[in-house]
Amino acid sequence: MKQTNNAIKFLMAQYRAIFKNAYFKGLTSAVLLTAGLAAGQAQAADFSDTTWSGAAAGSVFEITGDSSNDGTENKYENLEVTAADVDNPANITINITAGGDSGAVAATIGPHTANQLTVNATGTTINLNKSASKDVSLTVTGSGAAATTTVNLKAINVTNGTFTVAKYSTVSLADAITLSAAEGGIANAKVSFTGTNSAEAGSLVGKLVTSGAGGTLDFTGFGNLKTYTDETGVDLDILVAATKTATLNLDGQSGDTFKINSGKIDIKGDGSTAGTFTVTNGTLDIGSDVNLTNSATTNTKAGTLVVSGTDVADATVVRVDTTVLKNFLTASGDQAGSVKLDKGTLELVGDEQFDLATDVTFGDANTAGAITQTNGDAGDSVIKGTNLAVSAALADAKANKVAIVATDTLTLGKSDAASTDLKFGSATARNLTLLSNSATFTLANKVTLKAIDEVDNPFLTAEGTIKVAGNGQLDAQHTTISGTNAQLTIAAGHYSTGYNVTLDQGKLTVGNQAAGTEFDGVDASLKLTGTLSLDNGTGANTITIAGNSGAQSIPTDDPKNPISRKSSGVLDLTDAEIAITRGSQLTTIHVNAGGELLVSSEGFRQLVNAASATGTSGAATVLSGGSLFVDGSIQGENNKALSAAKLKSGASATTDVITFSGSVANLVEASDTIWLADTTGSETLDISDTGTLKAQTFRLDGNNDADFQVVRGKLIAGTRVESSNGNDIQLGNGTSGATLDLGYIEADVDKWGRTTGTYTTSSATGSVSTNLTLSGGASNHAKLNVNYGAWTAKDIAVNSGDIVIGVSSDADGAALADPSLYKASLSANKLTLGANASTTVNTNGTATLNELAMSDGTLNVYGTMTVNGHFVEGDDKAAPPTTDTYGVNITGGEIKVSGRNANLIFGEDAVKAITLNAGTAAVGPTPATPASVNVASGIFTSNISVDEFGLLTLNFAEGTTFNADSLKSLRKALLDSSVSTNGSALEAGYINLGAATIDGVHVSKQGTIDWANLKDFADIDQLKDIVTDDMASATLINVNGTDTVTANVANIQLDGNQQTVNLGDAYLADANGGISNGNFVFNEDNPSQAGNANVTAGAHVTLANGGNIGSVSLAAGNNAEEGKTIFNVIAQDPNAVTNIQEISAGDNTLVNISGTTEVAGRVNVDDLQADAALTAAGAVNVNGDLSDTATSPALAQGSISAASLTVDGVTDYSGDLDITGRSTFNDEAVLEGNNNFADVVTFVGDAELSYGTTNATTVNLDQNLIVDEGATLNATLVEAGSGQTIFVGQESSSEAGYVGDDSWESSTGYFFADRVDLNGAYIMVDPAYGKAASMVGIGQLGDVNQANVGNDAGTLEGSVVSLRNAITAIGVNDTNEATVREQLQSTFAQYLDANGSLSNKDDGIGSILYVAESLDVNNGSKLIVDANKSYTTFNTARASTATNSYGAHISDNDVYIGSNSALAIGDNAALNATYNDVPRAALKFQKNGASLYAEKGAQVLLVGSGFSIRDNIRLFDDLENDGILINGNNVTVSTMNGLLTYTLEAGKLAQNVNLSLNRRAVDSAFYAASAPVKNTLITYAANDLNWADTSADHETQQLLGDRVTDVKWNGTDYIVTENGTERALTDEESADLTHDVIGHDDNDRPVYGVFEKGYNYFLDQVVRDSRSGAEAETVARLAVFGGAAQAAISAGASTYDAVSGRMGVGANGANITVADNTQGAALWLAPIYKSSDSDGFDAEGVDYGVDMDLYGVALGADYTLSNGIRFGAMFNVGSGEVDGQGAGSAVSNDFDYYGFAVYGGYSMGALSLVADVSYTVADNDLEGNTSIDKVGASLDSTNLSIGVTGQYQLDFNGTTVTPHAGLRFSRIDLDDYTIDGEDIIADYDADSMNIFSIPVGVTFAKEFTSDTWTVKPSLDLTLTGNFGDDETDGTVHWAGVNNLSTNVSSEVIDNFTYGATLGVAAQTGNFSLGLGVNYTGSSNVDEFGVQANARFVF
Asked: The dihedral of CA 1028, 1034, 1039, 1045: what is its sign?
């Protein structure tokens, strides 16, 4: 037998090898040959394992019961498989029947005589359907634990027969088991389970489907059914015999739901052992028409329904109608059953209140009529319903673990009984009602309230919802929470109550729910406005307030920036009274992370027992990451200070104390003042390092003369810090440090937690009115931070402390976008710095001191610091004598002045300590003594360093003169030796001497200095760092072109026409100073022209504050470090522009741009540091390094714009680059800004693009490229270097194995290029999950000059590796509508989470490699997509090449698809690719024997709108067009919505794909479509009108287009006659044709007609691309969603409402009495406005509404006869706008309308009658914006209306009361119309609506008369019933598919409306006018209207 099978396989293989094109003749020969071999092996009468294993694909076998059938014509007497295994996955059908005189059929599979038996026949379908009276059955059985039987089939269909799953057997179905009994014969289609005990129980695994009458599951023995159903459900009887157990296991099945619509579930009881129906792992939905019963005769042990789950919430649910359950438990018709909850959920269906105390009972297991609970912890078993009640205590031990869940309202107790312990485990509800017979309800149970709403996501243009806190109802009495189990939890939502709440041994929780639950990111709040009483007499109380732990990730239109919203938990007691009964127990209030406790000032005092009430314990408040907000001030009783001991750190709760606990931040904030005092002399304020107090004012009082000490924690003051008793404040205690923040900058956030980009700051000014001492520990310094505002202070002393003035981040530590906008300043009297002290003045900070004492520590000045000094003259006559003091006492420490914005200023009093000695000339042998300075003792020491071109300002008074010697002496006295050696000049800094002068340097009255005068200075180098006030504003004149000028002046004038100055060290401070007019350098002949500058070797030149200069040339420096030549451009004002003609520089030079600079020519420098905008009209060539000083890209201020850019050194630049020409980076380059390269950019070294967006024309890569940190590269062409790698996205440093200080997180990258030439390189894409997915989009691969052979995406010469969380696309380009990034985000949106991340969990897809256009793959190139690998794990794994290793799978195959990974192929690639007009494959491999390796779970996704069942999809080819071999595992090919699928089988060649309907996806497909539209879409997708028929005799009815009469079908070919000759159409010519039976001839043979294949472009795209189906719904109901019917109804109503107003009916501007019944003609005018908003109208399962505004005017004329008869006519015209809501939100309608009416009325005394006939036409212009196409239609909707109204006026003392009633008939017609998009989509035929309305109402009115006017206000109330048609019906005929239509019905009007109208009318003489405002409401509609009228009676 094995040889025969092998022979068949060999022959077929030979056939495939020889006849690759599968000609019909060859195929026939092969089939005949194999059939002959198979026939030779059929020796037995039974269908056996041998027959089955050898059966050919497509074979159909009949099992007849006829002994004469021996296999001939595939007919067998019986089926018996016992001898050997079966292995045949081919598609085979086995029909088990018994017809004619044949005997019954009892087919069996198993048992094997001794061993296990396996039937692996996953393509086999078995049909059981007897055709006569003889029974048919199939039994699968094993014989023992070692002889089990396992059967794997495609499907089993039972129409009339029995399928038995016997002992030791398992049957698994790839498709389904279908039970389809004829009507009335539900028992004839049966599945029977006959296991004798649970160990032997057989199992059936697979989907269950029923049709017809359905079928029966008969558990006569033990059995297991692992199954699920479609959402439509099944009709089924389930019979469970007494003593047997049936198990329904829904685990892991699609939807995990089993829905029974009708039938019965009969679970029989018994005298000893009950029958048991156990449901586990899923949802059993028992419909209201199901009879749940127990038909036992003996019921000692009642038949039991067991809901058996796990610890996972809702893992098992039984959903049952309340009536069905009651009948089951109360023996309605049969015996009573029982329900057992074993960690499962019993869900009750019904809106009526269900009382668990009276409607059911709780008892022991198997007790008739009882519900029992077993196993698990409290809450594991759940009873769930809409409105539940527990009116009395439940059976204690039977219900004490049950969790009650009411999705709406839970009612506890009853109004005529006292409240008590209700004996349930826990309860959860949205709304809570408490009832008792007293004023107070005692809650003794655990109750949780949650109100969570889903609302439209406002941050997402596409459809999507988010969870928000809703409003719940707490309908309670005064409530006492009392008892060991008593707890009220507000888990989510907003609740409030004005009743009193008492805790007496109870718990109150707000928020505090675990992460990973429905509560993530949903706020919880409880506001109490009564009294909160805390009774500590009986037991401890606990209040817990916290945010819910998890964050909700909210997607936005930018997948890179989702919103991560954390929640808050708030207990608001601001308006509540807090009353505490002190006792032996304690109330503990825990305010944890995200928690907020809000109290009043008095409430706070109660919490801390500020009044010192007696009693052991009160309240203990513990902050562990939470916040306490006080509305008002924190202080003690009677307007006194509060003891500081009331606030402390600690790990445990202490009565009457606010305890700061834990390692996360805690906050106590008062809206006004915090007033604390040391009341005992030993009370310090210690709130831990994580504690914070915040207030506008702090008042901190020490004890007696002692300082107030803050040991630990942070104090944030908004306006003031003071002490009421004048004591000082000390931060820290010498070992620990505290922090005082003066001012704050807080980022504003919206309600979603997003920063808005704005900030809330404290007051612009503030003060500290007491002395401060900072005294921290050696490693825990005390801190004073001046964050914002101008603050004044007194004396500040610092030891082990730090002062910072000016910050670059907000209160949360996030960087400020522009710190310069948030300035901080501190003005203090005296600052004393001691050991371990520091003071830092940042660039946006300013400090002003009167005195400075410094013995140690560090003073860092980056901004401006001024020390004024305070001179007090000494008195040598005093006792003891005193010396001069200067307010400065610097004896140690370090002073650092650094940066171009740094300026340390010593005032005139301070520098009085520095005096000058003039020196002496040599006299005889006595040598000369140089001039020098004397510094008073202890005033200055040599500890000041100035670098980075900072400024030290010494404000010497006028008359002070320095020469070279005294300047040296000055430096030696003040400067640190690190910056000035033996008095030498500063190399990178300046000294401003104020009003002092330089000996020999004269500044003229005109503001000039003569160079001749200056250069004669004894040592000109001594002036290079010196600035004086007069020099800084003076022009240096008479400068020749040969001298080297060292000078710090305003600007320089050259002699005559000299053009260039040679500069040594120079600081040119003011281009407008002296005699200059904007130029730093100019000559006297042409002062308007800027001159040039040569910077000499090693010199430092600075241009400050903007101006003009010609060319600047820097001579080469002396060395690369200290001897650099440096050129600085600085300006604090970004609008101060420095204009330079050109910059050139030699080696060892640095050009620093720190002010806006524009260069007219080129820039050619060594090192370039650009911290401000640099614009060059020419090239920028950087021979050294390019850098900036920004610490992060967010703080970068620099940019470079140039004609070209070349950098030879390292580039590390955070600013932006804008280069119009070529750019070259010859070494490593890191670019972090936004860059535009309009020409070629070349990276010779490794390159990294981070953070910003880079746009480039051509990118040449010689080394690797990394695109990460959210950066984007957009390029026209990228040319990679051979063997290099382009990394898009980045793994983390730990994943990369990096060990070092510069760690980094994983990040996303975006890479988009029109063409990429890899040249053998790799593209690798990878960020970690949770980040936005990295994306690569490439238009074409390969050389630009390559030939196009149909490969529109080019040729891959390298490898594309798409790893975890990556979307890599080839063959995609930007369009006018969307960028590639937008296209990819939209195309694969269904796989992206809120963060824009893919996922490889469960069934997610974690990596996508998308080939959108046809692609060639060169030999050796690879396509790899693996969702489970990062860069490092991929490279590590592929290094192993052992057999069957990961590396072997990569190296041995051309394509690798990992688990949870997808190779996506576009429709253009798979359907439309051609070469020389011949179709080609999407992927063509340029080699023979190409292969693809697939891991389990690998997928091929078909992307685009072109795929259908009709298509032959060509995916793969190798060089010889053989397809490619699939290795590893089967691969599922599917459309994006999973509706159409195909399987590529492992071990076989894959080439062409023909899709089929995936019935498992039907249930979840098109979730936003109504039932008829969904059916249409599935019909179209399946190309089968009978797709829903799953029976064995199913016949496909294909969709057809137009009839093609000139072509016929001859059974083989399509034939056309041309010139009298018939010929067969080619495959290409007939590709769009099909044929179908159109009749039969005289011999009953079918006659075929030829048709175009049914095709509708719009439906085609919906079924391929849409998951929701909403697009088709929009088309199908375009007029309905656009409110065409409502437009006709409303416009018609405006017509007859105007008539009613005119005729005095209702209050629409009711007429004046004196105007009625007068004879004569009248002309009237009535403006009209209506606005209506509706939602909730039903459209067969989807809800919609319309938002309509209508504007119009009615003009009428009438005549009144003397007998009271009035007749008239009117014309109405207007327009309106409609926007669809809900399902119709994509539709809008602009309509115009007009209407006519004739009317008449008759008044006879108080009785009036009015009749009218009107006709109104609305011309509708409809538009629908869908994701597929913009669709539209135009149609008229009309309203023909006839109405009559009668009213009777009653007069009550001048007030008229007029009841009225009417009858109206309206006929609404919609024209048939056509829906268009890019082509005709559909035609719609509408039915008419006939509506009968009966309005009944009453009008109240009263007249008020003056001399000339009569005014009449009125009020009308009307109720209207609408009868007849409330829905509009129509049929959609889909263009191109003549046999497909959709019948739709949509609700358009409510059956009952109610309305109120307020009107006023006024008349004078013959003229009258009126105004009416009305509201009309109904269940779905709110309408507001305004109507006016005016008339004149002739």
From this structure: positive
Q: For residues 1700 and 667, what is the distance between their CA atoms, to the nearest angstrom?
A: 66
1684-1721 pLDDT per residue, tens: 999 999 999 888 888 887 787 766 543 333 333 356 78
Which pTM does this prediction carry? 0.65
- Alpha helices per DSSP H over 1788-1829: none
Most confident of 237-251, 369-383, 1468-1482, 1952-1966: 237-251
Going by their DSSP bridges, the two strands 446-450 and 440-443 should be labelled as unpaired
d(CA 1091, CA 1212): 33
Q: Rounded CA gap, 833 and 1669, in Å?
A: 73
- Burial class for 1300, CB neighbours closer than 10 Å (0-12, 13-18, 19+): exposed
Q: Which residues fall within 8 angstroms of residue 1191, CB to CB, at 6 or more apart?
A: none
Q: How confident is the model at residue 12 (pLDDT cuts 50, 70, 90)?
A: very low
**273 or 865, higher pLDDT:** 865
Residues constituting the chain: 1994
Tell me the average pLDDT of the chain.
89
Residue 1247 CA neighbour count, 13 Å, CB half = 26
Helix (H) or strand (E) segment spanning residue 1836: strand 1830-1848
Omega before 111 within 30 of 0, i.e. cis: yes
3-class secondary-structure state, position 1500? strand
Alpha-carbon distance of 835 to 948, in angstroms, equals 27
Phi-psi region of 1709 (alpha: psi -120 to 50; beta: other; left: phi over 0): left
The backbone region for 1678, taken as left when phi is positive above 0, alpha when psi lies in -120 to 50, beta otherwise, is alpha
Q: What is the pLDDT of residues 648-699, one digit of tens each?
A: 999 899 999 999 998 889 999 999 999 999 988 888 999 999 999 999 999 9
Cis peptide before 880 (omega within 30 of 0): yes
- Tokens 């994580």 belong to 690
Nearest-Å Rg of the Cα atoms of the chain is 45
* Residue whose C-alpha is closest to residue 320's, from 357, 293, 296: 293
Task: Check pLDDT > 90 for residue 399.
Answer: no
Where would I find the beta strands (DSSP E) of 1163-1299?
1163-1165, 1167-1170, 1173-1176, 1179-1182, 1186-1187, 1199-1202, 1204-1207, 1211-1213, 1216-1219, 1223-1225, 1229-1231, 1235-1243, 1247-1250, 1253-1261, 1265-1268, 1271-1279, 1285-1288
Distances (CA, A) of 859 to 601, 886, 907, 1166: 42, 19, 17, 34
> How many CB atoms are located within 10 Å of the residue 1548 CB?
12
Q: Which run of H or of E encompasses 1312?
A: strand 1309-1317
For residues 1042 and 1058, what is the distance between their CA atoms, to the nearest angstrom? Answer: 10
Q: How far apart are CA 1401 and CA 1780, in angstroms?
A: 38
Structure tokens at 1691: 């416009």
545 neighbors 594 (Cβ within 8 angstroms): no
Q: Tell me the three state secondary structure of residue 454.
A: strand
Q: Determine whether 1728 is exposed, middle or buried from the number of CB atoms within 10 Å of its CB (0-12, 13-18, 19+).
A: buried
Q: Where are the alpha helices (DSSP H) in 592-633?
A: 601-607
pLDDT tens-place string over residues 438-468: 989 999 999 999 999 999 888 877 778 899 9
How many CB atoms are closer than 10 A to CB 790?
18
Two tokens at 613? 């009430």
As a whole number of angstroms, the distance between CA 376 and CA 380 comes to: 6
The three-point CA angle 1173-1178-1180 to 5° equals 60
- On the 0-12 / 13-18 / 19+ scale of CB atoms within 10 A, 1613 is middle
* Number of H-type helices and E-type strands within the chain: 20, 163
* Residue % of the chain over a pLDDT of 70: 95
- Work out the pLDDT band at 34, boundaries 50, 70, 90: very low
